[in-house]
Amino acid sequence: MNSDAIEISGNGFRYPAFVGRGLIAKAGGIARSVTDRDRCTIIADQNSARFFGDRVCQAFASQNFSPQLITISAGEKSKSLTQVEKICDEMIKAGFDRSSFVVGLGGGVIGDISGFVAAIFQRGIRHIQMPTTLLAMVDSSIGGKTGVNLEAGKNLVGVIHHPALIICDVDALETLPPQELRQGYAEIIKHAIIRDADMFHDLSSCRAPTHRYGDALVELIRRNIAIKARIVAVDDRETSGERALLNFGHTVGHGIERATDFKAPHGDCVSIGMVATCAISMKRAALSAKQRDEVLALLKKSGLPTRLPDEVDREKIIDAIAHDKKFSAGKIRFVVTPKIGEAYVSSDVTMEDIRAAIDDL
Ligand SMILES: NC(=O)c1ccc[n+]([C@@H]2O[C@H](COP(=O)([O-])OP(=O)(O)OC[C@H]3O[C@@H](n4cnc5c(N)ncnc54)[C@H](O)[C@@H]3O)[C@@H](O)[C@H]2O)c1
Ligand SMILES: [Zn+2]
Q: For the whole model, what pTM was predicted?
C-alpha cells in the first residue's frame, strides 16, 4: 500500500485513503491501484457534478476506465429508496453488471446513497468514495456505513459496505460554502474532544487551520481520518461500544435536528449538543469548567453555534431524545468526556440531567 495513504483496516476489511491536493486529476491512476475492472458509474449530485464531474470522468477515462456519470438532485431528500431504484434501473439500462464498480463523488449524501447502491446492485459491487465536503472527508466516507432515509426517519435502511478506496482531493473544498465547511469542523472538534487533546489545543491555538486552504488542511484531514479509522478498526459494526464514542454530542444534537424538522444543519445541532454534553460531563464525569469553556471557545471560533435559538421548543427536543433508539432498552447510554481527549459511554446520565442541560442552552 502507498506510504502516503492512510490504511483503514479491521475485521474483514482493508482499504487506503489518499488525501492530498490535485488528486482529482490523478484519480484514475489511484483507482487502477485497486481494480483491474473497467466500467464504472460515477454518482454525483448537481453541485459535485458541475464542479468536478468532467474532470473526474476524464481522469478515469485516461486510465482506460469507461466511466458513466449519473447526476441526482443535491440534498438530503435524494437519500431515498426511490432514488436508489432509479439509479439501479439506469445502471441496468446502461449495461452495468457485477464486473462494474461505483464511484461516489460528492458529500455525505452521495457517499451514503452510492455506497448503498454498490452494496445491493447485483448483490454487491465495489465502491470508491471521492468525498467533496469536509464532513464527508473526515467522517462519512470512512467506516462503511451506507444507507438511505425513510419517511419515518434518517438512515433507517442501510448496510455496512466498506469502500475499496477513498480519494480526498482537498482542493475540492475551495468551492464549498462556509456554512458547509463549518459542518465538517463540528465533527473535527468532536474527534478532538473524544480522542486527541493535542489536536484540540492546535485548533484552539491556531496551529491548525480554521480556514479552508493549504497543506495544513491536508494534515488536519489526515489526522481526523486516522482517528475515525482507529475507532472503526476495532468496532465497525458498533458492537463493542467504541464506535458509539463517535456519537459524542449527537444524542442531544439529533434531538435538536428533529425538533427543528431537520431545518438546522447537522453540524450546528451537534455543536449545541456538545455544549449540553459538556454540562452533563461536568456533573457526571468531573469535566472541569475550564475545559468546558475551552470547548465553547473553539466552537465559537469555528463559526459554530453554542446556544439554542429561543424559538426552538425545548420540550420537543426532550421528546425526541426520549424516543431515541438508544433509550429503547430503558437504559440511557450517553457519551461523556472526563477531560478533553477522552470519552466513554456512561450509564449514570439521567433524563433529568439531559433536561437540565437543555434548559440551560
Ligand atoms: N455514513 C456515515 O458514517 C455518515 C456519517 C456522517 C454523516 N453521514 C451522512 O452525510 C450526509 C451529510 O453529508 P454532507 O454534510 O457532506 O452533506 P451533502 O452531501 O448534502 O453536501 C452538502 C452540500 O454541499 C454541496 N457540495 C458538495 N461538495 C461540494 C463542493 N466541493 N463545492 C460546493 N458544493 C459542494 C452538495 O451538493 C450539498 O448541497 C447526511 O445524509 C448524513 O446522514 C453519514
Ligand atoms: Zn455527525
A: 0.96
